[in-house]
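Marked as duplicate of an earlier ticket. Keeping the data here for the record.
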Amino acid sequence: MSDESVPAPATERYIADALIIYGVKLNESESYANFDVGEGFKSELRLQLYRSGNPVRKGDYSVVLASGYAFDGHGYRFDSNRVFLITGPKPQKAVGCGFEIDGYMMWRIQASSQLLEIATKYSDAQSLILDAQLPGKRSPSSYAITQSMAHRDGRFTRD
């Protein structure tokens, strides 16, 4: 009997804060990843890593369309796919958490590893700017953190 929530087993050694990211490598065939910018095949956005003005080889980093992750013996799925730039670990064939399907890979990282998340949204300006600033949709850091206290007819109590 197999359970889809069981993550891949540890390989070389046990790492307490090990994290496994499951997804698809978007820069598998090229040194860059392509993103549709909403105009069909007329235009695209390319994401490529450079160091000191030179492009980094495609095998040295991964642009990952992540679908889920495993941590502390449990597998989880993201509510929607997320795009990460992962440097360091090489991708491996996915094992565990139901990601054994062709095309899926896994990256073993530590919870303290630095990642870059690429947020992609395509919509009209009203949705992306104006509607996003409505109360309740803004990030908590955009609200004022000052508080003022008004008195009630010269009293500070409700009695």
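See parent ticket for discussion. Strands lie at 18-25, 33-36, 44-47, 50-51, 54-55, 61-71, 74-87, 92-93, 105-110, 116-118.
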